[in-house]
Specification:
Length: 150
Amino acid sequence: MEKQTGTRAGSGFTLVELLIVVGIIAVIAALGVPSLIHARRAAHSASAVSSLRLIHSSQYTHRNATGNYGDLAALSQYIGDPLLRAGQKSHYAFTVTPDAALPSEDYAGLATPADPTTVSTWRHYFIDASGILRWRSAAPADSSSTPVDQ
């Protein structure tokens, strides 16, 4: 039998080759995970904006039917999404409050981050009878906050 020289006894990867592959995967993950987190936050934010627009539309339907703006419970018949009717959707908590003095004139709708650890880093949203959707970062939004680009 002839002995072959210059070949490995076993066929497989060396430890160095495996470490290089693991290192490359770690670099790719380090670059991709922040982008994934940002994309998820943007999707939750877009869902909150969409939900507040639905609330605004439902408010006008409710006002035409009853003469006054309503809270989330009163709007539940116009909102098909059970999560939104319950006041929680896409990591946001929703509250809708008709103006106490003039319920036929105004209301305030808020979308606030539901997780207390994200309150300071996520956007907060506000809408009222004017239909202008507004946002503020790290604090609850109100009628003086920055308008969302329509």
